[in-house]
Write a structure and sequence with these properties.
This protein has three helices and five strands, in the order αααβββββ. The protein is an alpha+beta fold. Helix 2 crosses helix 3. It is elongated, with a radius of gyration of 20 Å.
Length: 142
């Protein structure tokens, strides 16, 4: 029961794949039994216990340690996720360590290079705050 648990959709897909592979080898395995076996493979007593552990809440758009790409104030970047914290339902504070600093200022006579970003995003990886033209400050690619 350690580590990040896959989403409910991924767990259900695992059960369907298990049923399909076992069907080729012998008698039909019911979907309920396949769900129970998937739960046990993740270290849980039964499907209901696993389902409760996963819950129906939205999943964060990124995982700790993941390498992500995106745009910050219009500039492309690659970064490592240093931190992620649930702030509210469907809102997550992410801390990103950029692979190389980016200049977030558009004026020719001034620069402001950033190597770390901390921002609140939704489950789609988009910041709530937007520029004056309506583009989110931070957009993470999935």
């Amino acid at each position: 029961m350690t580590g990040l648990i896959p989403s409910l959709d991924a767990l259900k897909s695992q059960a369907k794949a298990l049923r399909k592979s076992l069907l080729a080898d012998g008698p039909d395995l019911g979907h309920g039994r396949a769900l129970e076996l998937v739960a046990k493979s993740h270290g849980y007593r039964d499907w209901n216990t696993l389902h409760a552990a996963v819950g129906n809440a939205p999943r964060p758009p990124v995982e700790l340690g993941q390498i992500v790409e995106g745009r910050w104030l219009g500039q492309k970047f690659t970064a490592e996720v240093l931190g992620i914290q649930t702030v509210a339902n469907d809102r997550y504070r992410v801390i990103l360590d950029l692979e190389s600093p980016i200049d977030v200022v558009t004026w020719d006579s001034f620069s402001n290079f950033r190597s770390r970003i901390q921002k609140v995003v939704n489950s789609q990886g988009r910041s709530i705050e937007k520029t004056s033209d309506g583009v989110p400050h931070l957009v993470l690619k999935k």
